[in-house]
Amino acid sequence: HHDRKILVQLISFESRRQILVTHDVTQNEKMDTMRRDFIANASHELRTPLTVINGFLEHALSSEMNEETRQRQLHLMAEQGQRMQRLVADMLTLTRLESLVQPPSSDAVRIKPLLNRLVEEARALSGGKHSITLQVQDVDLKGNHDELESAFANLLSNAVRYTPDGGRIDVSWGMDDECASLAVADDGIGIAAEHLSRLTERFYRVDKTRSRATQGTGLGLAIVKHVLLRHRGRLEITSEYGKGSRFKVSFQRAQLALRQD
Ligand code: ADP
């Protein structure tokens, strides 16, 4: 394998005995590169709102301004502050998920009430501008409630954010062949095929401007991916540019929690 990199270390204890140690560092190097990229991207993402805030502050300190201007600038600064807060929150969630070595607990998570609430929140986020339907079977999963909540919430908020006003979003949860699956389908802007395989990479966005304008951090689907890894779920994305997208998450039968009542 020419793409493997082996580190050879010569450790000499005594004059007549030598020990040769080899480490396969390919994986380590990949991790290092990923970590470096993450820090570089994160710094870049944080620098933009900081620059805006600092610019306004300097301006405010150095010149007189009328009340109307002051209000407008404070408002813009608050927006940028909130953006930084979302970024830091998603970065923390993601790094926390990655550092967990224990599998999630095998507690039963009640999915039906969870989805009922998340769909209400999606309707609030939409401000009544989309028609959002929910079809749900009472099937529970083993796992961590908060992790599953953040994964599902990300899929729902993406559907709202990438679907123009007047669009529809259909959410369904239930048994499907041998799996339990959640499908979130929208008739929004859709995604061209060449982007599909990269969507779960951190900070990967098809359209940075749209993602920012709709309060995206570029980390949502990376969070989804990590939660699914921990719950043995798989993500299937089907989409057509200009037509809409469908994000389907399936869990194996072994991941289902049997109802006690
Ligand atoms: P973001 O915070 O930018 O939404 P995500 O990781 O959640 O980040 O998603 C990555 C990218 O995938 C988005 O920037 C967007 O381009 C695309 N995307 C995600 N969900 C949808 C969807 N339902 N419809 C169209 N594009 C989507």
TrEMBL record:
GO terms for molecular function: ATP binding; phosphoprotein phosphatase activity; phosphorelay sensor kinase activity. GO terms for cellular component: plasma membrane. Keywords: ATP-binding, Cell membrane, Kinase, Membrane, Nucleotide-binding, Phosphate transport, Phosphoprotein, Transferase, Transmembrane, Transmembrane helix, Transport, Two-component regulatory system. Residues 41-255 form the Histidine kinase domain. It catalyses: ATP + protein L-histidine = ADP + protein N-phospho-L-histidine. It comes from the Bacteria. Its EC number is 2.7.13.3. It is found in: Cell inner membrane. It is a multi-pass membrane protein. Member of the two-component regulatory system PhoR/PhoB involved in the phosphate regulon genes expression. PhoR may function as a membrane-associated protein kinase that phosphorylates PhoB in response to environmental signals. This is Phosphate regulon sensor protein PhoR.
